[in-house]
Amino acid sequence: MKKFSYILLLGISVALTSCGKGADKGEEVDVRTYQLSEKSRSGEFAMQSSSAKGDAEIKGMKFHYQIDRTPSDQLPKVKDEQGNSFVDNTIDLNITKDGKTLLTKRFTKKDFSSQVAADFLKNSILEGFVFDRVVDGKLRFAASVCYPQTDLFVPLCVTVSTNGELRIEKGSVLEDEIPGRNN
């Protein structure tokens, strides 16, 4: 139970702090939830599908985003040290600007290979992707690649400019930003 509480706290702190200090009010938080995959009879674990959407405004332009996480049987499975098999995820990001499509992108963990070490990437899954906030006139999202059901993850920042340009950078989690941590 203590490990589950720590994982839950860590997942929430990643969503809130991986790209910077805090987030705007009303932000949805994606919490890790694993279940036995309904698609597989071999006992593979998969995260639940999830969907989040929201709106942001930049200099009078209205943006709408939708984020959909889906376990994918098409991607290679990941095994942990105990031999448990995990299904990796795809994450679809769709952004409209004033009602017109600005960006449609399907992410896999390979999209983050420039920021995540190959050894880590091989044994990890694409875990989460949430809207963070508007920064410097760009939409900023927090993403994470992790070893399934562990505390080991790489926080990432995905920024999208008002003309649809996408940039991926490594994020950070500062110890003093973790909720409930006494320094």
Describe the protein's architecture and organization:
Helix content is 11%, strand content 44%. It has 183 residues and is mainly β. The chain has a single domain (2-172), classed as Beta Barrel (Lipocalin), CATH 2.40.128.510. The chain has a four-stranded antiparallel sheet with strand order 3-4-7-8, with no helix packed on it. The longest helix is centred in the first third of the chain and has 16 residues, at 2-17. The two termini are 24 Å apart. Residues 1-18, 21-32 and 174-183 have low confidence and may be disordered.
Question: What's the gist of this structure?
Answer:
The protein is built from two helices and twelve strands; from the N terminus they run H-E-E-E-E-E-E-E-E-H-E-E-E-E.
Number of helices: 2
User: What number of structural domains do the residues give?
Assistant: 1
Write down the Rg: 16 Å
Strand content: 35-45%
CATH architecture: Beta Barrel
Give the termini separation. Answer: 24 Å
Question: What is the H/E string?
Answer: HEEEEEEEEHEEEE
Which topology does CATH recognise?
Lipocalin
Q: What's the CATH H-level superfamily name?
A: Protein of unknown function DUF4738
Question: Which stretches are low in confidence, meaning pLDDT under 50 for 5 or more residues running?
Answer: 1-18, 21-32, 174-183
Name of the CATH class: Mainly Beta
